[in-house]
Amino acid sequence: MDSMIRQFYEIPGKVVALKAGEYLFHEGDNAKYFYFVRSGQIFITKFAESGRVLSLRLATRGSIIGELPLYEENPMYIFNAIAQSPSEVYAIEFPILHSYLEKKPSLAINLLKIIGMHMRKQHSKFRDLVLYGKKGAIYSTLIRFANSYGQEVDGGILITVPLTNQELANYSATARESLNRMLGELRRQNVIEMRDGLILIRDINFLKQEIQCENCGREICNIE
Amino acid sequence: MDSMIRQFYEIPGKVVALKAGEYLFHEGDNAKYFYFVRSGQIFITKFAESGRVLSLRLATRGSIIGELPLYEENPMYIFNAIAQSPSEVYAIEFPILHSYLEKKPSLAINLLKIIGMHMRKQHSKFRDLVLYGKKGAIYSTLIRFANSYGQEVDGGILITVPLTNQELANYSATARESLNRMLGELRRQNVIEMRDGLILIRDINFLKQEIQCENCGREICNIE
DNA sequence: GGGTGTAAGTGATAATAATCACACGGCTAA
DNA sequence: TTAGCCGTGTGATTATTATCACTTACACCC
Lengths: 224, 224
Description:
The structure is a homodimer.
Chain A: H1 2-9, E1 14-18, E2 23-25, E3 33-39, E4 42-47, E5 53-59, E6 64-65, E7 80-83, E8 87-93, H2 94-103, H3 105-149, E9 150-153, E10 156-159, H4 165-171, H5 176-188, E11 192-195, E12 198-201, H6 204-210
Antiparallel strand pairs in A: 1-8, 2-7, 3-6, 3-8, 4-5, 4-7, 9-10, 10-12, 11-12
The first copy, chain A, binds a DNA duplex through helix 3 and helix 5.
């Protein structure tokens, strides 16, 4: 993946630094820049009029952001991007990226690969949600966080990102209370455990089994 | 869109003819070819172990198929492709497409545009389902079919593809009975009407309102 | 014209998930 | 020290959706 990033650095652009909680862009904003993340973590979310929030990704070093409007006639961001921790992104103007993509086929192919991967992620998330309901959405979210931000420790995989129940619920399009009950149930079954505010997954295979995981690999089954 | 297709024709490949009901490929098959549709309609579906079927697209002239495994190390189709009517597709071997993409940046960029559009479609479908439940899924499916296969007639928009309740249910990840009841309700509200086996949408704005349609345009809000 | 098969329609019930209401604990700022 | 805030946990209730078990409608075939 790092080789893909290096290519983007050869394109003129600027570094943008974000404080925790700061917005990189809002949905509806005019889209001028394509970004990729140098450091930190960035929430990608979408608002519903009802006040609900839908969380889609937690981008990290190497993730691309704001690529969807790249070839729109009237480009607008359709999601929000908010720094979860202090972050740095590299910003490339669309027209500049366009001209580099026209000149360097290998860059276009790399972008094709990356976007193809995003497509696969999106499809597998859709599958989990649609076929296994909220349980599918929640278990799938836990597995994806484990794959992206999990750290092997004694007793299981520790998700190193602090997440409130509400945030987790946003990722699984679930009511907080429902999520809370499901986590409680998993705790009682010794599938997960809380370790000073973080989630420790003790039995990831249980989660995978329950949603008939197709073992699509960490490249796809993640939250980045 | 047609200009994009023309470019693919310059790449050596073969024409494959399919009878109605015939499979172009099954999920799990080794993926060797990238396809685009010359004529006819092709269902893109996915099976769940439980026996349920999830329908994702109904591809038509100009649609690309089987693009997802293009850059996988061990390429496999993840969906089924089944001809809904007699169809012809143009098949290009992955390695050949790879070499053309490397040589012709404009081809790679066109593919980027197409896949980017697919991504947008997928996201908007996800949104509809997740934020508005089954109603969202069903209304969204109807709107998408209207955008792809609708024909303006007196009294509304006629969806020119014959679809059983079961097939419609598969597109919205709903039980047939639930779908049936919802269609009945829409009929009672004069939002839709059956016209010799086809669905006539009399009030598409009602459907759009109910799911807080963001008017993303026919390029995105379709089922192709 | 009766038999068969497939799809549509519908009632009853069960399962799933959201909503409302509130208790509790921990942290922080006055 | 205490009031306020935020996040968690939970019971009770309602809303949504699936499932089961049928009936009805219609086309097709012999």
